[in-house]
Amino acid sequence: MSFRGRFLPGGAATMALLMFSCLGCGSGGRNSGTSTNAATVEADAKPASISPADAAPPALQTGGFDGAKAYSYVEKLVSFGPHPPDTPAIRNVQSYIRDRLKGFGCRVDVDDFHAQTPIGTLAMENIVAKIPGTGPGVILLLTHYDTLRLPGFVGAEDSGSSTGLMLEMASLLCSGQKRHNAVWIAFLDGEEAQLVENGEAQWTDADSVFGSRELAARMDLSGDLKNVKAVILADMIGQKNLHIVRESSSTKWLTDLVWKTADRLGYGNIFLNSEAATSDDHIPFIQRGAAAVDIIDLQDFTEEGYWHTTQDTLDKLSPRNIAIVGHVILASLDELQEELR
Ligand SMILES: [Zn+2]
């Protein structure tokens, strides 16, 4: 994903101004201090020790969401090493995700496709776990699982944390009761820009969110998209110093619902009411008229100098924070199931 702006007070006028003022920013807004780290720092392969403050609480305290299990999936994803699209490593990650989902009892749809990128045609794969509902409506959860094409970059936070979270979500939902709306959990390939120069991703609309664009287009064509009532994207949600602000191109009612849920659960210190714009996997769905929200903390990770560097490693993560975001998404799903009948 990339910044389109920094923290700003909310409001449609501000958002319009923000988006306008950032046209042509390219990778603009990103922290210029991060690139040197990428070239010089080796990935830390040591297993991370988790401080008591960052340990996941018992699952019962987070609505049944098991943060320790989610974190163990992140550890496994990181163990495959750097996995940008169309590499042997990402094929191992894909078979791991498919196998886990099938093991949880999920129905799994796989879409293999080819993406035209600035570095050539790349084979990519979206993996979608489908939990059927009793009605036609669909609530769609999204994460990307590819990592940035940077030597030594394992992406514990970007994209391990949200992928581990969604695997735990699938393990809970695929074995659970049928609800009114179906829940589809999409594990997307090719979120990152494929062209990386001097350690910096050259993010453009044409070179990013390949998996999300493929899924949105495919669902539009099949007619499934019109049944999608809400799209919830998680990205970079496991870092220790987690503060998630409202993403300003996200759908307002859905953002309100998630933030109200977080507040009710006592997580107002993590889900903040300031606002920033981010280009991410939710945008192709918004462009096709779906309601979508992006739950992301790009700001802190960038300011700390870890984002898109080889320092994006397991020791930067807090299983507790993964559990908190998992709890919020799980509880938001409950709210949505009630409201969207
Ligand atoms: Zn990224």
Name of the level-1 CATH class: Alpha Beta
Radius of gyration from the CA trace? 18 Å
Overall helicity: 25-40%
Strand order of the largest sheet: 2-3-5-4-8-12
Number of domains: 1
N- to C-terminal separation? 32 Å
What are the low-pLDDT stretches, counting only 5+ consecutive residues below 50?
A: 5-45
Beta-strand content bin: 15-25%
Number of helices: 10
Write the H/E string, N to C. Answer: EHHHHEEEHEEEHEEHEEHEHH
CATH superfamily: Zn peptidases
- Class derived from helix and strand content: alpha/beta
**What is the overall shape?**
globular
List key phrases describing it.
Aminopeptidase; alpha/beta; 6-stranded mixed sheet; globular; two-stranded antiparallel ribbon
Compile the SSE list and pairings.
Elements: E1 2-3, H1 12-21, H2 35-40, H3 67-79, H4 88-103, E2 107-117, E3 120-131, E4 138-144, H5 156-174, E5 182-188, E6 196-197, E7 200-201, H6 210-222, E8 228-235, E9 244-247, H7 252-264, E10 271-276, E11 278-279, H8 283-287, E12 292-296, H9 299-303, H10 319-339
Parallel strand pairs: 4-5, 4-8, 8-12, 9-10
Antiparallel strand pairs: 1-11, 2-3, 3-5, 6-7
Helix pairs in contact: 3-5, 3-10, 4-5, 5-10, 7-10
The structure holds zinc ion.
